[in-house]
Predict the 3D structure of the following.
Amino acid sequence: MLDAPQARHPGKLRDVHFRGFEFAVPEFPRLHAGEDGVATRAPPDLGEHTGALLKAAGVDQAQYDAMLGSGAVAEAAPNAFAWAAVRRET
């Protein structure tokens, strides 16, 4: 879809750099008149907010540790792509 000529018009896509990868994402619309739009940030790592979210939901540390130990939840780890194996073209 992003290869379609319509998607390549100026202002339709924004380049994102994440963990050594570069890819294009659709540009978000402006929020209010006069603003330049939503700043592009790298997506959060899978598990980056797991602890904070579960603690906010009332999960105590012992329960959280048990969840981690069982594999029910995961925390982000540097250079780990929990959602898919990294494949680089050679």
Q: What stands out?
A: The mean pLDDT is 76. The radius of gyration is 18 Å. The first helix runs from residue 50 to 56. The first strand starts at residue 13 and ends at 18.
